[in-house]
Design brief:
By secondary structure, the chain is mainly alpha-helical. Helix content is 68%, strand content 0%.
């Protein structure tokens, strides 16, 4: 229900929930991929910290830069 064209509490919670999921899901996927992969030296720790501290931006950075640094087994 909207009041005078303003977003109501239910719509606001729905929007915030969707935005939260769009930020959390790529972060979780990136962390799982990092932990399952092998990296040189301590690159794994660096990528985990980048993804944890930068959240969505860290996940985007990992998928664009970090995937190329994985060691193929």
């Amino acid at each position: 229900m909207t009041y005078l064209g303003i977003i109501g509490p239910f719509q606001m919670m729905l929007i915030l929930g969707i935005v939260f999921l769009l930020g959390v899901i790529p972060t979780i996927i990136a962390l799982i991929d990092i932990l399952k992969s092998k990296f040189e030296r301590n690159n794994k720790l660096v990528w985990v910290l980048v993804v944890l501290f930068l959240n969505l931006l860290g996940a985007i950075l990992y998928f664009t830069i970090g995937k190329k640094q994985k060691i193929e087994s």
